[in-house]
Design a protein that fits this description.
The chain folds into two domains: 143 residues, Four Helix Bundle (Hemerythrin (Met), subunit A) (Up-down Bundle); 239 residues, paralog of FGE (formylglycine-generating enzyme) (Alpha-Beta Complex), CATH 3.90.1580.10. The radius of gyration is 21 Å and the shape is globular. The strands form four sheets. Strands 10-9-8-11 form a four-stranded mixed β-sheet. The protein has a three-stranded antiparallel β-sheet with strand order 1-4-12, with helices on one face. By secondary structure, the protein is of the alpha+beta class.
Length: 412
């Protein structure tokens, strides 16, 4: 699907880590200083946490390689761990519970100075872990900022929004029975996270999959048909979540009188009907039931994605129409599976045969093999190119609305 650098090119990896630092620094510069202690998404940390977290992670991962003493051992612990969204009670900390921003920035700068020598001698695996961890957080930061009031952002790097165009939903694509190849071999020259190993095949009976992601227009019909008030379309847990939290529409939609608007990164737009809808797994699953379909399994999605092209990276903040000229296309003609929004599957996040946790990061995957997380595939407009590899697996709990995650449906 995409070209990924081999694991052994150390100098290239160092350059990529420095570029990843600049990527996250650029995103932080979008936030006005007084907003750094905001919590735009209740299930996430305040923005200032991520300033410290990215450096604490790098130090805890790479710092020992150079033999230097920690610039601030207390911060190494304070900023070590993020939050599993919807993993329990919402955080209750106050802005004043966190260090001053200038102190956190000093910690960031000191860590980077100390790590300059360490990264030159770090193993390729550690460098890849540091790079992709930071780039994943760049996407997390983007969707966190997406939920901020517009006046809390600078709009330094706004991109032109792709105008909507005429779109007619297409018939589903019939995928013949076949073998889906999941994961990477342990001897692969391509970097992968522990949950991507080991490569294996899964037989998939023939099925039909939507040619395009479900659009805002299609989801609007579900909403107008009473989809959010029909308990028969929701699992018991999903219905409790929906009613308890008064969930009545996608998180990126805003009601304006009798119409719907879309919350773009820097502006509010009339709802773009041909853009992919971004929703939680619970909402996607309810739509699929309403449509008489289901969400694809990870293996079905993988088989339908064989031979996918990868769209050019433009650094956009918002998606494009599902039938955009630059959309990825699989060998079967399934369109837009890569780079225009993650896609929910019905598969619970679980280890592949031969799974071994990373010694350097044993807690990356294993704590989430709990039956409460679902696999997402494909990537969004904010996903780094290196993460758009066929084997990459994302995962979230079903009641989290804020990811750039859409879906498409299947029938047997």
């Amino acid at each position: 699907m995409t070209t990924v650098e081999a694991v052994g090119n150390d100098q290239l990896l160092v350059s990529r880590l420095l570029a990843a630092r600049e990527e996250t620094d650029t995103i932080f510069r979008e936030v006005i200083p007084e907003a750094m202690y905001d919590r735009p998404i209740p299930e996430r940390h305040r923005i200032v946490f991520y300033v410290g977290h990215l450096e604490a992670f790098d130090w805890n991962l790479l710092g020992g390689a150079g033999g230097a003493a920690s610039p601030h051992a207390e911060f190494d612990r304070l900023f070590a761990f993020g939050i599993d969204p919807v993993g329990g009670n919402l955080p209750a900390d106050r802005p004043e519970d966190w260090p001053r921003l200038e102190v956190v920035n000093e910690y960031r700068d000191r860590v980077r100075e100390e790590l300059d020598d360490a990264i030159a001698v770090a193993s390729p695996q550690l460098l890849n872990v540091a790079i992709e961890h930071r780039l994943m957080h760049a996407e997390t930061l983007a969707y966190i900022l997406h939920q901020m009031p517009f006046d809390r952002k600078r709009k330094q790097t706004a991109r032109k929004v792709i105008e909507s165009s005429a779109f007619v939903p297409a018939a589903g694509v019939r995928i013949p029975a076949g073998e889906a190849v999941l994961g990477l071999r342990h001897d692969s020259a391509i970097f992968g996270w522990d949950n991507e190993f080991n490569e294996h095949t899964v037989h998939v009976p023939e099925f039909t999959i939507d040619k395009y992601k479900v659009t805002n227009a299609e989801f609007l019909r579900f909403l107008d048909a009473g989809g959010y008030s029909n308990s028969a379309l929701w699992t018991v847990d999903d219905w409790v979540w929906r009613t308890t939290n008064n969930i009545s529409h996608p998180a990126f939609w805003v009601r304006r009188g009798d119409t719907w608007a879309y919350r773009s990164m820097f502006d509010e737009l009339p709802l773009p009907l041909d853009w992919p809808v971004y929703v939680s797994h619970a909402e996607a699953n309810a739509f699929a039931r309403w449509a008489g379909k289901s969400l694809p399994t990870e293996a079905e999605w993988q088989l339908a994605a064989v031979g996918n092209t990868v769209p050019a990276a433009e650094g956009a903040w918002d998606p494009v129409p599902v039938n955009h000229d630059d959309a990825s296309v699989s060998a079967f003609g399934v369109t837009g599976m890569i780079g225009n929004g993650w896609e929910w599957t019905s598969t619970e996040f679980a280890p592949f045969p031969g799974f071994r946790p990373f010694a350097c990061y044993p807690g990356y995957s294993e704590p989430f093999f709990d039956g409460r997380h679902y696999v997402l595939k494909g990537g969004s407009v904010r996903t780094a190119q290196c993460i758009l590899r066929p084997s990459f697996r994302n995962w979230f709990q079903p009641h989290y609305q804020h990811v750039y995650s859409g879906f498409r449906c299947v029938t047997q």
